[in-house]
Amino acid sequence: MNSEIDRNKLHGQAGLTRQSLFDQGYLDEQFVQLEELQDDTNPNFVEEVVTLFYRDSARLLANIEQALERSPLDFAKLDDYMLQFKGCCSSIGAKKVKNECTQFQEYCRAGSSDGCTRTFQQLKREHSTLKNKLEAYFQLA
Amino acid sequence: MAAEMMYSVLIVDDDAVVRRIHKVVLERQGCKTTAVTDGQEAVNLFRHGETFDLVLMDLEMPVMDGKQATLELRTMGVKSLIIGVTSRRAGPEVEAFIGAGLNDCVEKPLTSAKLAATLHRLGVHIS
């Protein structure tokens, strides 16, 4: 009985954690689309896709970081890299990270090095924060 | 359903996340899927005699992008439906992509609803 109570408690916590990710703007409707694709055939689909995202996005972020170290900045290339990264973020519903991508692209169009650098730092923070939150959620779910 | 009767789809995308999502979306609809990571691999499959009912083609890919791959497939006489799937909103790059020979173009990410709506628009019924 204790284990059933513990399971119910964990389930409840998972639900609250999940809801907070939406309420706080970390995730959008695309994450729900992923959840709807999870079934007996693909029982860990959401966690699998998120893991793939973090694996691939690390490489994309490294490309952007390298491009930001060049002088002068190639804003067209940076915009292209960011478009690719933003596409990845859209695929898992990473809303806050995606918003930072949009901001970064606006700074690229404005030709603002400071804006790009600042926004990229914020983007990395949001990317990392979401990773921690999703890891915590998957532990409970 | 026998494999040979299933609607066959070729997923062409360099993004592993997108390939995984599209695979599951399509297999849920009863499709048989094959995935490659760039346009050149897609063209090579057709050159080697493979056929697909539908190709989901990403635009930006290394080696050969989606626009070039679509041009080559149409030049080869490939009649498969080709749906472009891109992160780009409407604009000159998307128009050029469509002009290469797409039947339709949708914005990523593909969802079950978008796929159903697009296939309906194209008059395709996956049985």
State the end-to-end CA separation of chain A: 20 Å
The share of residues in helices of chain B is 25-40%
CATH topology of chain A: Four Helix Bundle (Hemerythrin (Met), subunit A)
Q: How helical, in percent, are the residues of chain A?
A: over 70%
Sum up the overall morphology of chain A in one term.
elongated
**Number of helices, counting only DSSP H or I runs of 4 residues or more of chain B:** 5
Q: Which consecutive residue ranges of chain A, at least 5 long each, have pLDDT under 50?
A: none
Q: Which structural class is indicated by helix and strand composition of chain B?
A: alpha/beta
Q: Mean pLDDT of chain A, rounded to whole units?
A: 94
Q: Give the structural class of chain A.
A: mainly alpha
Distance between the termini of chain B: 10 Å
The CATH architecture of chain A can be given as: Up-down Bundle
Radius of gyration of chain B: 13 Å
Polypeptide structure, described:
- The complex is a heterodimer of chains A (141) and B (127).
- Chain A is mostly helical.
- Chain A has six helices and no strands.
- In chain A, helix 3 packs antiparallel against helix 4 and helix 4 (75-92) packs antiparallel against helix 5 (95-110).
- The radius of gyration of chain A is 18 Å and the shape is elongated.
- Chain B has a domain at 38-50 and 68-120.
- A five-stranded parallel beta sheet of chain B has the order 2-1-3-4-5, sandwiched between helices.
- In chain B, helix 2 (39-47) packs parallel to helix 3.
- The model of chain B has no long low-confidence stretch (mean pLDDT 91).
- Chain A binds chain B through residues 30, 33-34, 36-37, 41-42, 45, 48-49, 52-53, 55-56, 80, 83-84, 86-88, 90-92, and chain B through 15-18, 20-21, 24-25, 27-28, 60, 87-88, 108-109, 111-112.
- Chain B: The modification 4-aspartylphosphate is found at residue 58.
